[in-house]
Amino acid sequence: MINMLHLVLVEAPLELIPLSIATQPIIQMIAKKRGKKPTDMLLDISLHYKAMKYLPKRHKRGRPDIVHRFLIESLGSPFNKMGLLKTYIHTINDEIIEMRQDLRIPKNYNRFIGLMEQLLIEGAVPKDEPLMWIFKGSLQQLIERIKPEIIILMHEKGEYMNVMELAEKISRFKNSMILVGGFPHGDFEKEIFELSNIRVSIYDEPLETGIVVSRILCGLELKVASHLKLGKQ
């Protein structure tokens, strides 16, 4: 039987505009239009492309849309509704965002952006009874707290498994963790590779994050359904 799975979006391109580019004309213009401080807005390559050329690792930054789809796929999944999934975001700045299983992410992208900006500024939303909050620690510290029996890193050059084989492997552990890359280009940082026990591929080419997550969760849902069916016989 599958127990708890901790699903982490790793190196997610979610951050407020860095102070180092806050004075760039395009950012100043958008901030004025929105009536916000530049450093209170999410970095978004679709809006801030010209300013981002001054940032290190810019190929891995400024894609909050990837986070949006990840959360819609994971939190809206039947597997999460079964109470078997805990979802986390590990940002490119090594912050951890935790969320309750009953959190409903806005489908509207502009509302989602506003929610993420509020979270990164205030540390939790809503303040009185948070549905989402920033964990004061690194990915390493999150792993030390959860103590998963296995940490699986999804990578196109890992050991090939179809989604049912992956679900079968996960089902052998009471407490497991899957790391999925959240960046649009490039590869994981060395320390991420070192944190995992095994690398697994469900396809021999890179796939979009949302597709990887949906396939993994579908396999797990089928595994649970199969277990329940056998239990009734």
What does this molecule look like?
By secondary structure, the protein is an alpha/beta fold. The protein has a domain at 4-14 and 62-103 and 130-232: SPOUT methyltransferase, trefoil knot domain (Alpha/beta knot), CATH 3.40.1280.10. The chain has helices at residues 25-34, 45-52, 64-75, 78-81, 109-122, 139-146, 163-170, 190-195, 209-232, and strands at residues 4-12, 85-91, 96-99, 124-125, 132-135, 150-160, 175-181, 198-201. The chain has an eight-stranded mixed β-sheet, with helices on both faces. α1 runs antiparallel to α2 (45-52), α3 packs parallel to α9 and α7 crosses α9 (209-232). The radius of gyration is 18 Å and the shape is globular. The relative contact order is 0.19.
Quick structural gist:
The protein is an alpha/beta fold.
User: In CATH terms, what is the fold-level topology of one domain?
Assistant: Alpha/beta knot
Distance between the termini: 16 Å
CATH H-tier superfamily of one domain: SPOUT methyltransferase, trefoil knot domain
Q: Structural class, judged by helices and strands?
A: alpha/beta
Q: Tell me, rounded to a whole number, the average pLDDT.
A: 94
Q: Give the H and E element order.
A: EHHHHEEHEEHEHEHEH
Instruction: Assign a percent range to the helix content.
Output: 40-55%
Tell me what portion of residues adopts beta-strand conformation. Answer: 15-25%
- Using only CA atoms, what is the Rg? 18 Å
Low-confidence runs of at least 5 consecutive residues: none
Q: Quick one: how many beta strands?
A: 8
Tell me, what is the CATH class of one domain?
Alpha Beta
The CATH architecture of one domain comes to: 3-Layer(aba) Sandwich
Main sheet, how many strands, which sense, barrel? 8 strands, mixed
DSSP summary: helix tally: 9
- The strand order across the widest sheet is 4-5-3-2-1-7-6-8
